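User: For documentation purposes, I need each entry recorded in a consistent format: the amino acid sequence on its own, followed directly by the corresponding structure tokens. There are two entries in this batch. Please keep commentary to a minimum and don't merge the entries.

Assistant: Recorded as requested. Entry 1:
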Amino acid sequence: MEHEEIQQIFEKFFEKYRKHESDEDPNWSAYWTEFTEKGKFEVRMIKAPGRLTFSFFNDDRKLAEVEGWDTFFDASKSLEQDDSNGYDEARFFAGMQEAVS
């Protein structure tokens, strides 16, 4: 799956499922969870004024937190190469794409 396609899927998902904690909170977030043979893998996207943050979790343990799309794709590729977490970028975003189709 191409980076541009993944970005479009995540942005579409974010617009559909975003939430925030209160009316005064300028931060919006959305997350997608996939259950793999190695546990629960989750990616959270948080948008704040002038900031875009992604957090990666495996079984509720934070693996990485990065800012911006370029670092997101670097972290995603790195985590995909780690067999201990069960993360597969294409499978993960194919599931997210089904949720917004």
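Entry 2:
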Amino acid sequence: MTPKDIVAQFIENIRAQRLDEAKDLLADEGFEYVGPNMRFLSREDMLGYQFGMFAIQKDLVLRQLSADGEHVFAILDYRTYFEPIGDVRLAIWFRVREGRIQVMETFYNAAVVENMLGGSLPPAN
């Protein structure tokens, strides 16, 4: 699979709440997730956080997916059941190496998500 195919499958697995299948697409070692106000250095920690978000996830809509070699860029709408915030637009940069996602960096309005969670986001490492 190409890096773009790997990321597309990862996004589909998260949309369908298939964490075990999503985990298989992430690097075992050296994985890094960076968001506006959090950082995870293990795929288990990042997916554990994602599992907690499934309660409010209505849908995850892929709007754009572009690739340049091992770099893949996605724009998504994270649709929620949580009326005070509604939907959150995400931009995610992925780096895929040796058939697995090594790095994810997510860009979104962190204040909206933090307010939704009552300021209880995990601290950045």
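Summary note for entry 2:
The chain has one domain: 3-117.
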